[in-house]
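Give me the 3D structure for Precorrin-6Y C(5,15)-methyltransferase [decarboxylating].
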Amino acid sequence: MANPWLSIIGIHPSGLEGLSPAARRALDDASVVFGSPRHLALAQAGTRGRAWPVPFSVEPVLQLRGQHGVAVLVSGDPFHFGAGASLARHLELGEWRNYPQASTFSWVAGELGWSQERTHCLGLHARSLSSLTPLLAPHERFICLLRDGPAAHTLAQWLLQQGWGDSPLWLVEQAGSDQRAIRSGTVRELAALLAAQPAKAPVTAAFEARGGKGLSQVPGRPVSEFAHDGQITKSPVRAMTLAALAPRKGEWLWDLGAGSGSVAVEWCLAGGQAICVEQHAARATNIAQNAEHYAAAIEVVHDHALTALPRLQPEPQAVFVGGGFSAELFNALCMRLPGPWRLVVNAVALHTQALLLELHRTHGGQLYQLQWSEAQSLGSMHSWTPSRPLVQWVWSSR
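Predicted structure for Precorrin-6Y C(5,15)-methyltransferase [decarboxylating] (398 residues):
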């Protein structure tokens, strides 16, 4: 930390007045100042200013690496949804000094009297609004940084469509400055108001979710909540399949012959990431739609599992095969994956069930037969309708 060349400075709409003495000195000493046009104007950077390229890239800063007197302006806290982390990924410790201010989240939480550690703080500049879906639940609180003024209307409309129209919503413009302005009302009220009176950037949205149900927090979510053509792992089996796959945060799943991708979606909702391989184009489209709806980190590969296997990256901690399993696929997986991994296969066809019996005999693991019945209408009454028996093989390479 003895000789840093880069100053990363947080700045608010209050401009130079809000900077600490140390941040002001770093800014005054800089010969080159990078930032958005708005931040450069607030800092009165003049001819020293360099606007970020579009699309955003830190490369112009890195080209000056080691040249003293380089500063970067970002909003509030540079390492809380700011460009600080994007820069630090390319640098060694000690190359920069950080001059943070209170983040926009801190300003808005303080205005509303909310406990920040119990509030979801999100940057929605380049993220889909569906990233809110797994988090939405009654009385959960959110503070969201928005890309621009029109994004406030888009957010209100989306929340209304998702059933959260009764949620109280605050739109904070110019947070942290003397010019800050706050508009409040329900999501339904502001969705109508913003159509005629758009918000002005920079704008932050805060809301407390009310009126909706939220997403179930356990696997086995209803089949009706996924796009599918009938090729989908049914809810009871999916719950047992996820239990067998045992997802852990940050782990990867390969879902081969993915169908609707429902298993991969629920894996991702548990904190993982997934690659879905599906040979039918319409089903691959359904997988992409389900991934978008749940903001699931899924890569969709339209191909046969055996053909796609050599190019799939990264290697997974777990593999699920819900259809199209074969001895050839099992052998290919064993050759492809040298590290420890676990496998879950579900089979309804007798031929595949016989293969699982043989693999269990030779390789071990756990074998289950799953069968359940559902009450369905029988004239004016109800009767049990049994499902097809399903065999599940759970195996680990080590």
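The longest strand covers residues 390-396. Let me know if you want a second pass.
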